[in-house]
Amino acid sequence: MRASTTETQHSPEIEFEHDDFILGSIEEEIRVDASCQALLEQFYQHLLKIGYNLELASDLAFCADYYLRDYLVDFARQNVVRPQPGIVRCFAATWYITRTLDPDFVVLERYLEGIRRFYRFLNNKHLVSKEELTFIEDEIGQTDYYRHRIETFLAVSGDGYTDWLAECPLNV
Questions:
Q1: b vs e for 40-57, b when ≥16 Cβ sit within 10 Å of the residue's Cβ?
Q2: Is the pLDDT of residue 79 over 90?
């Protein structure tokens, strides 16, 4: 990661390379986390700049952070700016549901909106392609499926969890 000479009102604009988000050693994980934090701060500042109020910008950045650092990097071990098809679907249809004490569709919708806004931001920064943004947004749009997944998860009994999980396994 390098700071460019272009300054914003709040902080220097940061340029990223795709390789800034490759995981490996513990040192690389620390570097990736720092790159993610810087990118999220830039996302937050962008939201404020385009007119979002502090509360909404903060909520969207929080939702993107949860997806980005807890799921995408820590769990899925994927490069932030090289999204793979199925990654958001796996998050929304299984990971979020199984990692939450009381999965709630309204809360999941908030996360999905934060993810949508974040990937649009990445596309505007030329860090993800239009094709990548399209498949991410298509996956975000599968809300009926995600609602169904939450409902069926909450209704699981006996040995039903294995079948429920097989429908959308955690390996992406």
A1: bebbbbbbbeeebeeeeb
A2: no
